[in-house]
Specification:
globular; 14 helices; mainly alpha; A middle domain of Talin 1; 316 residues
Length: 316
């Protein structure tokens, strides 16, 4: 297949998976809003999972196809994209991002630990089932800790009714969106594999650079079009999507433990990931705000990441 045609197919599939994710996100948002869940909790858990659904289905198809590293690259790259590119662009675009009245310091520290652990585990060249279960366990612990006063499931159960929400229609939309995610994620995996073979590039690199952008289009769209009153939703979604990526890494490792072939190259990427997380945590922990200047710093970190991946993979 012509490489430009393959790139076009990959771009179309990323667009399609973004549209399907938006359908799922909008439907879930309607249900959650009527249930009166707080904006940040809605963004972190409900939209965080919903907007990360492309990564989940790409992970499923990658494991089925025997290429789990493609999904790993997508998930790791996605965390870097969310905390540097998307947070950076949003801070520059809006002037500042406020984290007041969102996470407590304990919740924020636990979120930081959750985001750092995959990089720590991967430094030895892979993630086993036990480490995967640890990641899943910490995510569940974070959910329980943040949800101890406001029980999401109880709110939805008590306040969402078929009559008030026309739940059947929303469920059909969610199922249709998920069906689209399955189809387009399959196309993305197949197109990405053709692309890697044509240029003799590691699937891990394609996941880190290309898929991590394509599958985070829902978050990028939400960040740009969120109104000021919805800022907490967007911020919660960015952080929640990054945390959901860790959850999916845990699920991936539990089902299909894996080893990374190019350990030295991935270690540099993991180091950049660790730096991204630590810089982001420091910015927020110190003043509960990411300013336009901070956004420029985050974008610079992402630029270093992209340059390294291009140079180390020989694409230049």
């Amino acid at each position: 297949m012509n490489i430009f045609l393959d790139l076009g197919l990959l771009a179309f599939a990323c667009w399609g998976i973004s549209k399907c994710a938006q359908l799922v996100v909008n439907s879930v948002k309607q249900i959650s809003k009527r249930a009166k869940i707080s904006d940040f909790t809605l963004g972190f858990f409900v939209l965080g999972i919903a907007t990360s659904s492309p990564e989940f289905f790409i992970g499923v198809n990658s494991v089925i196809g025997g290429y789990p590293q493609l999904s790993l690259g997508n998930l790791i790259g996605g965390i870097i994209v969310l905390l540097t590119l998307l947070m950076g662009v949003s801070a520059i675009y809006t002037g500042k991002i406020s984290f007041k009245k969102t996470l407590s310091k304990n919740d924020f520290i636990l979120t930081g630990v959750l985001l750092l652990l995959p990089a720590v585990f991967l430094f030895d060249g892979g993630i086993n089932r036990i480490e995967g279960l640890v990641l899943i366990g910490i995510y569940i612990g974070l959910f329980l800790l943040m949800n101890k006063e406001e029980t999401i499931l109880e709110e939805i159960r008590d306040k969402v009714t078929l009559r008030s929400l026309k739940l059947a229609k929303l469920v059909i939309k969610v199922l249709a969106g998920i069906a689209g995610l399955i189809i387009f994620s399959k196309i993305i995996v197949e197109a990405a594999l053709i692309f890697t073979k044509a240029l003799n590039i590691s699937p891990l690199i394609v996941g880190l650079l290309l898929l991590s952008i394509g599958t985070n289009l829902p978050e990028l769209t939400l960040g740009f079009f969120a109104k000021s009153k919805d800022e907490n939703i967007a911020v919660g979604d960015f952080l929640g999507s990054a945390a959901a990526n860790v959850l999916f890494i845990g699920l991936l490792a539990t089902v299909y433990p894996f080893e990374v072939v190019s350990v030295n190259n991935i270690r540099v990427s993991l180091l950049i990931m660790i730096i991204s997380i630590l810089v982001f945590i420091t910015m927020v922990y110190r003043k509960n705000t990411i300013t336009r200047k901070d956004g420029i710093i985050l974008l610079a970190i992402y630029a270093v990441f992209v340059v390294w991946e291009i140079v180390s993979s020989g694409i230049y």
